[in-house]
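agent> fetching stored inputs for the 5-O-phosphono-beta-D-ribofuranosylamine docking request
agent> found them:
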Amino acid sequence: MKKIVILFSGEGKNLHNIIEKLHPNMCQVVCAITNKADAKGLEGLDAKYLMGIKSEVLEHTGFSSREAYDTELVKLIQSYEADLIVLAGFMRILTPIFTKNIKAINLHPSLLPKHKGANAIEESFSSEDKEGGISVHWVSEELDGGEVIAQKSFLKSEDETLESFTCKIKELEYELLPETITKILYKL
Ligand code: GRF
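agent> prediction call returned; pasting tokens
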């Protein structure tokens, strides 16, 4: 069975969605790692321990540099010997220590290469773009700049609000990320 490790920082809705859709039949989520001890997504993970899913908190505070943090993070990830690492809302700028050593994909809430960075949803909503969408891409040294693997989009409606736009983005994320993980793991 293929193994994945998932990294997250906040709500962890994508993390829990992946667990629900893929674990343990399509792949084993061997560990969920967060850099935030108060990440909401940690809730409910204790119960998943019995299903073989470990959770780890590696806080970035207290490290002297991004490189020092990434060195520890890489060691932790590698200890799980996973086939693929999934960044699902992991809100960190990564150094080459991470990107050169870890084969990872990232979920981004825009149609890359448009609207890179942390405000992608707000920017694409208020842009002139006729559509919104999401991307899954390989992680590279450039923030949100690695090769795009898959995208899904929708046309903005005339009465679109930021709330309705955000909901559509989230729905697409819950479809596309598990689909893409499965395709990569089994080379579909
Ligand atoms: C998602 O919208 C993803 O596109 C972005 O961070 C968000 C994470 O949400 N990179 P959640 O923690 O999975 O609820």
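agent> quick read of the result: The radius of gyration is 16 Å.
agent> awaiting further instructions
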